[in-house]
Amino acid sequence: MCLDVDDTLVDYSTSSRAALASMVGSDDTFPLWQRITDDHCARMLTGEFEYSTMRNIRTRAFFAALGEELDEHEATRRELGRQEALAGSWRLYPDVVPCLDWLRAAGLPLAAVSNASGRHQRDKIATLGLAQYFDTVLIAGEVGAAKPDRVIFDTACAGLNTALADTVHVGDRLYADAIGARDAGMRGVWLDRNGQGDGSLPHGVSAIHTLAELPELLVCELAGTRV
Predict the structure, then answer these.
(1) Which InterPro entries does this one have (predicted)?
(2) What confidence score (pLDDT) does residue 222 get?
(3) How confident is the model over 91-107, as a mean pLDDT?
(4) CB environment 145-165: b (16+ within 10 A), e (fewer)
(5) Domain parsing of the chain, residue ranges
(6) Quick one: which of 119, 123, 91 has its CA closest to 15?
(7) Which CATH fold topology does 2-11+91-222 show?
(8) Chain segment 3-30, per-residue pLDDT in tens
(9) Which of 184, 168, 185, 157 has its CA nearest to residue 227?
(10) What is the pLDDT of residues 33-45, one digit of tens each?
(11) Beta strand pairing status for 111-114 and 205-208?
(12) Triad 135, 141, 143: Cα angle to 5°
């Protein structure tokens, strides 16, 4: 069993918005921040720069897009303040611990598979008490591949010693998580917390709206029932 971390287990969007607001006064520019973050994280995975360097470069690019040029010292100051606010607002969704307890009680080996990068993601997992549940943790920045690249799914299954076809991956992004896992040969489950789906799903992908629905889905799958 594989689970994404941010916006699947951890309410990352809320904490990230709050951290951005602490830096710029509001979260109105969050879509811009996220686009610039996604771009810089992708460049980091190619080896263009290290994670610690990326954060400052990303912050300078963000403010430049808003029309403000920052020197390195000021970018560092603002970014450190944002990071402090972010770490102080990490929260699990209320359905997470009951689901993880059920999965462990069912005897399923568990992997956390995250597209984040750097030590901060492991710190987050440990701080929120998630580390005790996982047999292995896969971080894109460490693996050198990010979902939907099948390399990270292959690596997760190797760490769990499970076959791809017998492993389920759950995440909040339809393409990167559910479809990516399906294309790698796994069972992909989209956690559509915000009800973004229109009722239709790609072949081989299931959807749930809360992790409280996951045990029933797994039981039905094990019983060979179409969900």
Answers:
(1) HAD-like_hydrolase (IPR051400), HAD-like_sf (IPR036412), HAD-SF_hydro_IA (IPR006439), HAD_sf (IPR023214)
(2) 60
(3) 97
(4) bbbbbbebbbbbbebbebebe
(5) 2-11+91-222, 12-87
(6) 91
(7) Rossmann fold (3.40.50)
(8) 999 999 999 999 999 999 999 999 999 9
(9) 168
(10) 999 999 998 888 8
(11) unpaired
(12) 55
